[in-house]
Amino acid sequence: MDGIHVEVTGQRLGAAAALAFCDAPGHGAADLFVGRVRDLNQGRSVRGVSYDVHTALTRKIFAEICAEAHEQWGGGLHLWLSHRHGYLAVGEASVIAAASSPHRDESFCACRYLVEQMKQRAPIWKQEHYVDGDSEWMQGHALCGHG
Amino acid sequence: MDGIHVEVTGQRLGAAAALAFCDAPGHGAADLFVGRVRDLNQGRSVRGVSYDVHTALTRKIFAEICAEAHEQWGGGLHLWLSHRHGYLAVGEASVIAAASSPHRDESFCACRYLVEQMKQRAPIWKQEHYVDGDSEWMQGHALCGHG
Amino acid sequence: MQREFSICPFGAFRRYGEGPMTVSVPAGATVAELRTAFAATLQDDAARKLLACSALATDDALLNESEPLPESAELVVLPPVSGG
Amino acid sequence: MQREFSICPFGAFRRYGEGPMTVSVPAGATVAELRTAFAATLQDDAARKLLACSALATDDALLNESEPLPESAELVVLPPVSGG
Questions:
Q1: Measured between alpha carbons, how far is D67 from D81 in angstroms, rounded to an integer?
Q2: I need a labelling partner for A5 at 20 to 30 A (CA). Which of A138, B74, D12, D48 fits?
Q3: What is the ipTM of this complex?
Q4: Nearest one of D65, D47, C46 to C54, comparing CA atoms
Q5: Cα of A131 to nearest chain C Cα, Å
């Protein structure tokens, strides 16, 4: 859809592309979120994270989330949502969400919405790999649809 | 202060530097805001904006705002607040605010706080230049301190 | 007549099978019936617990428990998600 | 004894003087008294209105109306702000 870019990729995510997309002569504001792999989670030293992604469904759900943001904050917003799959070392970006709009409130709200909804609804799974050699799949949010 | 970067500059603002600063092995989240010059304001076609800035006071107030964010959301946050002065064409970035933190809520809240407080408290003035040749100083927020 | 479904595991479900798992149900069964049949094939208590909080889906959409099974015989099992 | 202050305009106040404006008040005057004296030097009604909603400051800090004037004779007048 116009003004929406969603992506699942094995390549490094770049903020510059997201900010270039979330830009328009009538847009005075852009907000961008970067999620990165942390070195510590619940007291354990992390060396990296593997992201398992159902690519086709994730793309579809990302597009749905962005369409909802358009409905809520205006169809003129530019929206970007990209997630990486595969193994990421500490510090690498796993997700980038961005939004631009004429005024700032819509950008902040829409960007946050993309992030929160992505975490709840996208079929993506995080497996942490610890410095001690162990690995663990993270607990998560149950997907609706089997109720 | 540690983890705080404030800046007033006549040079182009870059998001990459802000995102590089707002990064740490323990930080899983970063939020970045870009304010840009819009082509239209209150129905008038804008060709550019001149920013008049009291540099010394603005730097001081930016540092105060960041210190307040540290107090509210944790001293470990990395915070960036930069504003440009001089003439900017439509589409150029006038302000960049960014924050990084272990978890995302703090990044979103702190970044928004920097932007809102900057708009209320920093001695910066916007003069819009219109396509028809006219110019206008924008209405704004009265500074406290003479009450 | 029985229909055979191939169910591909994702996330934590990969612990219980790297490749697709096969489940057989009567033609005309519902998604809920497939889920029950799937649970019966799992050896592990933890796997059955994980299935109970997982969604079944095609590559297009999550499946509703009360609905008939889809035309496609290729399904996926999606445990609770943890993206970002 | 009179003290002379040089007040540098910013933002919309630049309409009423490109360079610093000079205002003279008795030594020991308060910021409020300086503000009154400043207003009296302005020709324009609009300028006086703008002054009424502007802050006076040094390069270090905003000034409080009830306080004595600062040591520095270099002041600034800061109309309502519109950054971002």
A1: 23
A2: A138
A3: 0.95
A4: C46
A5: 20
